Amino acid sequence: MSIQQENIGKLVARREKAREGGGKTRIEAQHAKGKLTARERIALLLDEGSFEEYDMFVQHRCTDFEMDRQRFDGDGVVTGCGTIAGRLVYVFAQDFTVTGGSLSKTMSDKICKVMDMAAKAGAPLIGLNDSGGARIQEGIDALAGYGEIFERNILYSGVIPQISGIFGPCAGGAVYSPALTDFTLMVKGTSYMFLTGPGVVKSVIGEDVTSEDLGGASVHSTKSGVAHFAAADEKEGIATIKELLSYLPQNNADEAPIVPSKDPVSRIDDSLNELIPDNPNKAYDMYKVVRSIVDDGRFLEVHRDFAKNIIVGFARIGGRSVGVVANQPAVLAGALDINASRKASRFVRFCDAFNIPLVTLVDVPGFLCGTRQEYGAIITNGAKLLYAYGEATVPKVTVTLRKSYGGAHIVMSCKQLRGDINYAWPSSEIAVMGADGAVGVLYSKEIKAVEDPAEKAAVTALKKKEYEDLFSNPYRAAERGYIDDVIEPRNTRFRVARALAQLASKRQELPAKKHDNLPL
């Protein structure tokens, strides 16, 4: 055997050993927990044969606590690039079989390197997290490594899409990188996120809680809103990431991919003409409207189980990606509260950052009232949504279906927040408040002066009808140009599609500034 052949043989053997991570025993332990390995996740995520790995032979440089005896090629993270449906992406996947996926300085160097490469190439970055946190043996070096990752998350925010998949533990400082990315997905039963674990919680405040109840997928997808998606297993989670990516552009200077559809934009839906109940206090399902107007009824909902009184997600109309924001009258009558405002404002800002037009479907009676909302800063949180819509320069098409009252009317992409095309159904009511409340304010003295109950009811009904004739319709707003047209519900898909086509070349600039001061 020649020296060259011997060297090649050593390379092949070392590659094979590196691909085993922490070894077969630890891989088996990973599988026993219902978890895939880092390389198995990458293989599922990327097109077959497309993965180009970097820094396979990197090892940590720590010598304290006998760490020089525990060295593995790759040092607990697999990094590189590949394609998804032919589109370039960069990826890093933490390997729990190597020192529990704990973050060392060299591991952070690998991650930062691939982040920088993604930004230079203008391609999405996908991080698959499965880590016990900072490598304690490295002390401040590990913390410095986290800081460098976070800085890149911040610098590249709004430049390239950043997606985090949580496929195992993610604790302590490690949670901030996913929190800084655009979308976070968790897996039910096997992943969790928290700043301090159950043991610390017990010792500090005496509270007994499990990892799942403290920071599992069900908690963060329903209560905190930290997770945008919760998957039943890892395969579903990776499939969701791939579907999400299909709606997104490569970077902030690119357009989202166009996916041709056989669903004609001229399609009408007669059922929409009968959707709005005669009783203004009766609910209906906004999902019927969303699925009716988008291509093939396909809708990828974001934050599906969090703040259900507002719906956000991605779809296509005429083959082009759109972001959909819609009040849900079947939950809290569609009123905006703290969580709904946070949820929608973050989504609107993402769409604006990445050139994805916004379609807003409005049926909102106002902001949720009460001390809990006021003490929780509903004012500031509502202002976030107001700010997000007012700042957005992407095409904005708004359709008011029924109620649009008071400050909530303004917040939901009205004409004064630079809404481009604003439509209304004939059933819409655009006013400061509903008839019942308005009559109580405008005619309270007159009604109180009537002593006979029957006459009082008659006067109240008369005043209510007068108010409804004035404001419980879209025509007062249309007369003033605040509504561009009153449309027949069954034609909504066609009218929205045509508006988006007209706005495809829209250009709008913001005043020069260092950065804004969003009401956080």
Report on this structure.
The structure is a single chain. This protein is an alpha/beta fold and 520 residues long. It has three domains: 3-246, 2-enoyl-CoA Hydratase, Chain A, domain 1; 270-434 and 473-502, 2-enoyl-CoA Hydratase, Chain A, domain 1, CATH 3.90.226; 435-471. It has 20 helices and 17 strands. The strands form three sheets. Strands 10, 11, 12, 13, 14, 15, 16 and 17 form an eight-stranded mixed β-sheet that branches. β14, α15 and β15 form a beta-alpha-beta unit. The radius of gyration is 27 Å and the shape is elongated.
Helix content: 25-40%
Proportion of residues in β-strands: 15-25%
Named CATH topology of the largest domain: 2-enoyl-CoA Hydratase, Chain A, domain 1
CATH class of the largest domain: Alpha Beta
As for the number of domains, it is 3
Low-pLDDT regions: none
Radius of gyration: 27 Å
Please summarize the sheet with the most strands.
8 strands, mixed
> What's the end-to-end separation, in Å?
67 Å
General shape: elongated
- Helix/strand/pairing class, anyone? alpha/beta
CATH architecture verdict of the largest domain: Alpha-Beta Complex
The DSSP helix count reads 20
- DSSP strand count: 17
Q: What is the mean predicted local confidence, pLDDT?
A: 91
Supply the CATH superfamily name of the largest domain.
2-enoyl-CoA Hydratase, Chain A, domain 1
